[in-house]
Specification:
Creatine Amidinohydrolase, Chain A, domain 1, globular, about 375 residues, four-stranded mixed β-sheet, alpha+beta
């Protein structure tokens, strides 16, 4: 990735808009500098002086990456030659470190400070104390126009992440059998993702399973994980790999037992809906809302419109969910290189459900799906 060019473009955007920018360890920083992120924790893991952790830069100064000693050592340092690394010792004063940055940057008395959306409140409070006349704006909003259009190098990175995701799914599919619990399946997915080269799941691996004896439940993982998958039941996968910092998002449906005609009908509608959405993704010609409409119409005309409960898709890249969204009311005109999930579904609480999901790149002639395997009706008899 051409991080030098990205930094140059971002600093030009900052010029005249902000005097200082702070970007914590995040997708924004990974995009600008290549500084990697680690696997996130459920609870916070704090080190002394953690509020300085991130890159400090101006329109006229290269980034200085400040890291507490433990982050630098256990995280492997910056991992990038696009930044100057400054390490804060365990007993050093983080405020004094930032005062030095401020002096070196020669900021005005009332600076405009751009902060990434992932900046912690502790950092904002500390900067406000050091720069009492500062005003704040979103660095993420300034960076968004650059991140939303993916380069061909980024497309290839996502294609590789998709290949890892599909390879993992193929390995899982070979191990599926009646009587597994939902936890068995989730655990196998997460293992196979890592086994095939992923840093881990790009988000919490999810199953949305339903059938006449297996009601669909949302948001109750510790309860649903215990459930035994006995036919007839439809198993809806939602997961993705992380490769080189890029996040894939993928979905397929598997049926345990003999598929009913009703299930075959909804499965066919979902697949046709996705095809219509992908075909509609003609860059420069349609809005996000129009793509959503093209796919949604298939399911509505099939009589299941109320069971398509969510937007068609979301932009994706270094984050799993990025704006814009393929949804009603989003009038963003698709541009070539924009990348979205296309993930129609029919979810029913007391009977069978179906979903499919692939990452798709907007192109002049229609969408280019980065994965396409396992689209047939998958049955474990």
């Amino acid at each position: 990735m051409d991080y030098e060019r990205r930094l140059e473009r971002f600093r030009k955007i900052l010029d005249g808009v902000a005097d200082l920018a702070f970007i914590p360890l995040s997708a924004d920083l990974a995009y600008l500098t290549g500084v990697p992120r680690d696997i996130p924790n459920f609870g916070a893991v704090l080190h002394p002086g953690a509020w300085v952790e991130g890159a400090w830069l101006t329109p006229h100064h290269r980034p200085v990456l400040a890291l507490p000693r433990m982050t630098a050592e256990f995280g492997g340092g910056s991992g990038s030659d696009t930044v100057k690394l400054e390490i804060l010792g365990d007993f050093e004063d983080p405020a004094e470190m930032v005062r030095r940055f401020i002096r070196d940057f020669e900021l005005p008395d009332a600076p405009r400070v751009a902060i990434s959306d992932k900046t912690h409140g502790a950092t904002v409070s500390a900067v406000q104390a050091l720069l009492p006349q500062a005003s704040f704006l979103s660095a993420t909003d300034l960076l968004r126009p650059l991140r939303v259009i993916k380069s061909e190098e980024e497309v290839e990175a996502m294609r590789r992440a998709g290949a890892v995701t599909e390879a993992a799914f193929g390995a899982v599919l070979a191990k599926l059998e009646h009587g597994m619990t939902e936890l068995d399946v989730v655990t196998e997915v997460d293992y196979q993702l890592r086994r095939h080269g992923s840093l881990g799941p790009s988000f919490t691996t999810s199953l949305y399973n339903s059938g006449p004896n297996h009601p669909l439940l949302f948001g109750r993982r510790q309860e649903t994980w215990k459930r035994v998958l006995e036919p007839p039941v439809s198993i809806l996968f939602d997961f993705g790999a992380v490769l080189d910092g890029y996040c894939y998002d993928y979905g397929r449906t598997v049926f345990f037992g003999e598929p009913t005609r009703g299930f075959e009908e909804i499965f066919s509608l979902v697949m046709r809906s996705q095809g219509a959405g992908i075909e509609a993704m003609r860059s420069g010609q349609v809005t996000a809302a129009e793509v959503d409409r093209a796919a949604r119409q298939v399911i509505e005309e099939g009589g299941y419109g109320t069971a398509f409960r969510h937007r068609l898709g979301h932009a994706i890249g270094l984050d799993v969910h990025e704006p814009p969204f393929l949804t009603a009311g989003d009038d963003t005109v698709l541009e070539s290189g924009m990348m979205f999930t296309v993930e129609p579904s029919i979810t029913q609480f007391e009977t069978f459900s179906a979903r499919v999901e692939d990452v798709v790149v907007a192109r002049p002639g229609g969408g280019e799906a980065l994965t396409g395997g396992f689209k047939e009706l998958l049955v474990v008899e």
